[in-house]
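Project standup — Tuesday

K.O.: blocked on the structure for the chain from last sprint. Re-posting the sequence here as requested.
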Amino acid sequence: MIEMIVALGVFMMVMTIISSAFLNIMNIQQKTEAFRKVNDNLNFAMEAMMREIREGEKYCPPASDCATAGTFSFTNKDDKQVNYRLNVGRIERQVPSISTSWLMLTSDEIKITRLSFAVRGNAVNDQKQPLVIIAISGETGVKEKLKSKLNLQATVSQRKLDNE
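H.V.: unblocked you, prediction finished:
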């Protein structure tokens, strides 16, 4: 009887350790999946904006007269105005000449906490190549313990020379 109780006790200890390790592995997997989602979404949005901004011109910083609050505007390679904005935790894109609706660049699962644009050298004939600094912060995950946060920043210079 004592041997049975000892064996049962050892078995319970081993099972407790194994189940604890299994739960820990599940949490790590969920955190990894959350990080992958936020990384994929932010990288996609950043690459899409960079590609279009690089080939664009007439950058309009958010603080100037030609932009509405929180919206970054410029003219793309097809000579159409393009707008980007942060709206309720999502990055959105609009081409007013094609549609008045805004299209989401990021998933509903991701909450974008910051989107900012800084423009330098966009004055005409200032002998400085125009460039845009884009900063994005985002997070995903329901539980605080499993949340993944990511910050990205990129600098994009205008492909077309300033004196053209």
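K.O.: great, moving the ticket to review. The CA atoms of residues 43 and 63 lie 26 Å apart. The helical segments are 2-54.
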